[in-house]
Specification:
This protein has six helices and nine strands, in the order E-H-E-H-E-H-E-H-E-H-E-E-H-E-E. With about 200 residues, it is an alpha/beta fold. The relative contact order is 0.14. It binds 5-O-phosphono-beta-D-ribofuranosylamine. The site of 5-O-phosphono-beta-D-ribofuranosylamine has 14 residues, from helix 1 and strand 5.
Length: about 200
Amino acid sequence: MKWAVLVGGTGSNLQAILQAGIPIDVVLSHKANVRALDVAREFGVPALVLLPKDFASRAEYDVALCRELDNFGVGAVAMAGFLRWLQPTTIRHFEGRIINVHPSLLPSFPGLNAIAQAYQHPVKITGVTVHFVDDGQDTGPIIAQSAVPIWPSDTLDDLTGRIHRTEHRLYPKVIQAMQEDRVALENNRVVWKGGGDQWASGH
Ligand code: GRF
């Protein structure tokens, strides 16, 4: 199955996915001139830019997005820094084959600035979640989570670095598992095949 990664930022997760040797067929960004596009080019992956300002509505944007992905024969989508709300029709189009990485232990701290939210709360343990995308904000069925401690001496930068390093370990593993058909969404539940759910800690 062909994979797309949707980006819009620094592309550190895209880089981790590609460095893990995971084949990605196309990268699509909602912003121009972002580092994620450079990462795609460095690894020889076709990179597309769809700017929201070029479309009259969110619906038209998503029609174009699906058309581009369909043209590449994309069957599954990993979101990594793509800060756009996808239309329900887009999510249906890729249902059970569209995933996202979020820098907290969902359902705690959904939305933007999740790392800072956890740091400021403050909680003792936060982490990383990989989940299927549904119509809500970071509400889809959880595939894997990895816990990250917040130490008393941590600055926000310390925590941010630890979270990102954890994302970079966890996300490629989950994508690889999906590529190998070891995990799937069945009746809106995540099913790990081959027994057990060793992904509670992500290790
Ligand atoms: C990551 O922290 C991810 O959890 C969130 O957006 C950020 C993307 O970072 N969804 P990058 O572009 O992969 O460096």
